[in-house]
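Bumping my old thread because nobody answered last time. Still need a sequence for this structure:
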């Protein structure tokens, strides 16, 4: 069908290089059209829910929009979790959802529902395309889709496509028309608003996940120029570029009761993972607090910011002037040094294996060309606390937009294929159970993906909440089970190994095997909680 060819051709010419297809009938014209392009990557998976997360991973890994082609009905509904995540994580995703034409709507036709605008609050743009019209129309709609997916903030777009049977195949010659380009001049941000912020001396630079990895370097350079300490979230990738101004253990320093106080917070990017930092910022309020980010949306759940500048870090940082106090950074570095010693000796005295031990080992042996994907729940938090790569690294990724424990394996698989790199994923047992279908995707990654299933037989994260004291905790929050993942790995023909202690050897073997594999590590969520409580107490003794 020529309409489907015009659509796919326009997307390909605009740089969409990954098409994910979930088998179906109504989406046949789009699947056939995509299959005509030998140079694009086609990915096929039976589960639209997982495939949606996989597409998100591809888009993140390849730093370009990725497309998904789904059939009508509940197939479309299954994309909702990943569309929500992509919306909140600003990931460009092109959703091509097949539908029946107008004459088959609202009349009991098979697999037909109201799927127009089904993702309404979560898409940057949406359209319901008629079965036929001229070439210019279909091309311009695709050009608009790509344009809106990549505006600020990036995000998903839905093109609902009505197809009328029969789905005629057209000949092998591809309609290679000239692509339609849409672009609008960029507005220059108004930086005159900087002046009131330049009188501070004891600034603290807070960095959450950034709109793009290129934003990190100017921030690191600004911190060096001002000699201001940096609290950088794991997702900023700052740990791949360790600089003197970075305060490694800021979370433990704050937990220790340290009384150093900044006279200004300069925040780039999203909120940070560290809950303690968020509490500390509330305690500091109304400390002058400037948030710099190119996205127009508000990123301030606690309403602490006293100023907002919409700008890229690369535009803002070279222009920002402030004062420097030579002792300010020194004091933070001294705290960091002390906490580092405390953490080191605490681990040495407590060798019983925890997720924290696993993170430290990963930091030691992670090959420099591996990105790391972390599951929500405790893995992202344990990594934020304890994963400091010895070698240079390719960065850390998490579905942090909505912090779901769904689709984590699928996103990791997409990320590996999108970034053309082997990958280490560290995911809790509940998140793995949620995404068992996506074990099938591990089999298909181009590069080996090592999946660590951190099995503490339930939900570890809830042990860190006050609800842990409730007598019903284990039943309703702990969600205890006694399953292991060996049989599921066997079902998908993935090499599998299990350990309840130092997994160094198992991981080194997995990295060297050249194949995707599953390493199950057995831990105790009760002990992990106790370990972290005792480490907090130990840090608090520094002040005494
Ligand atoms: C789709 C979804 N359902 C429920 C939750 C709430 N939730 C957050 S973490 C978590 C448990 C995580 O357990 P696991 O993956 O085993 O990691 P652990 O914390 O034990 O290390 C749950 C249920 C969520 N974030 N997303």
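Sorry it took so long. Here it is:
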């Amino acid at each position: 069908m020529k309409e489907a060819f015009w659509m796919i051709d326009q997307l390909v010419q605009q740089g969409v290089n990954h098409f994910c297809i979930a088998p179906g009938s109504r989406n046949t014209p789009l699947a056939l059209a995509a299959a005509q392009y030998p140079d694009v990557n086609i990915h096929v998976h039976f589960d639209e829910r997982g495939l949606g997360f996989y597409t998100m991973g591809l888009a993140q890994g390849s730093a370009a929009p990725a497309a998904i082609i789904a059939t009508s009905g509940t197939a479309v509904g299954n994309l909702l979790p990943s569309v929500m995540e992509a919306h909140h994580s600003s990931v460009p995703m092109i959703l091509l959802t097949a539908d029946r034409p107008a004459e088959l709507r609202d009349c009991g036709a098979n697999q037909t529902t109201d799927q127009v605008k089904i993702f309404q609050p979560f898409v940057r743009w949406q359209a319901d395309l008629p079965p036929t019209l001229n070439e210019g129309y279909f091309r311009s709609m695709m050009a608009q889709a790509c344009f809106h997916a990549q505006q600020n903030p990036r995000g998903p777009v839905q093109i609902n496509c009505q197809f009328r049977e029969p789905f005629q195949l057209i000949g092998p010659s591809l309609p290679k028309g000239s692509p339609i380009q849409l672009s609008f001049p960029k507005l220059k941000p108004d930086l005159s608003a900087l002046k009131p912020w330049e009188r501070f001396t004891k600034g603290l630079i807070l960095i959450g996940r950034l709109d793009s990895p290129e934003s990190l370097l100017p921030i690191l350079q600004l911190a060096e120029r001002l000699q201001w300490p940096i609290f950088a979230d794991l997702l900023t990738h700052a740990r791949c570029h360790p600089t003197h101004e970075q305060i490694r253990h800021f979370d433990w320093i704050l937990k220790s009761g340290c009384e150093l106080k900044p006279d200004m917070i300069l925040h780039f990017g999203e909120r940070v993972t560290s809950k303690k930092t968020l509490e500390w910022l509330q305690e500091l309020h109304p400390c002058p607090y400037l948030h710099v980010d190119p996205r127009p949306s508000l990123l301030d759940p606690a309403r602490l910011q006293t100023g907002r500048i919409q700008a890229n870090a690369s535009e803002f940082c070279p222009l920002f002037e402030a004062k420097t106090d030579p002792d300010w950074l020194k004091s933070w570095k001294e705290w960091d040094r002390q906490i580092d010693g405390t953490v080191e000796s605490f681990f040495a005295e407590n060798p019983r294996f925890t997720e924290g031990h696993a993170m430290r080992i990963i930091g030691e042996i992670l090959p420099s060309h591996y990105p790391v994907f972390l599951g929500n729940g405790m893995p992202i938090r344990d990594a934020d606390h304890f994963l400091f790569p010895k070698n240079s690294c390719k960065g850390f990724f998490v579905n942090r937009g909505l912090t779901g424990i769904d689709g984590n394996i699928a996103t990791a698989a997409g990320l590996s294929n999108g970034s053309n790199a082997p990958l280490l994923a560290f995911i809790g047992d509940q998140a793995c159970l949620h995404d068992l279908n996506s074990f099938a995707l591990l089999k298909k990654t181009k590069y080996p993906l090592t999946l660590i299933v951190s099995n503490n037989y339930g939900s570890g994260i809830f042990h860190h909440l006050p609800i842990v004291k409730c007598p019903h905790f284990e039943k309703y929050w702990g969600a205890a089970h006694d399953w292991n993942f060996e049989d599921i790995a066997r079902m998908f023909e993935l090499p599998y190994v299990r350990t309840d202690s130092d997994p160094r050897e198992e991981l080194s073997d997995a990295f060297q095997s050249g194949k995707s594999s599953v390493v199950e590590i057995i831990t105790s969520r009760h002990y992990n909680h106790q370990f972290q409580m005792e480490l907090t107490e130990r840090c608090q003794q520094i002040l005494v």
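The pocket of thiamine diphosphate is lined by residues 375-379, 403-406, 428-431, 454, 456, 459-461, 525 (CB under 6 Å). Let me know if any region looks off to you.
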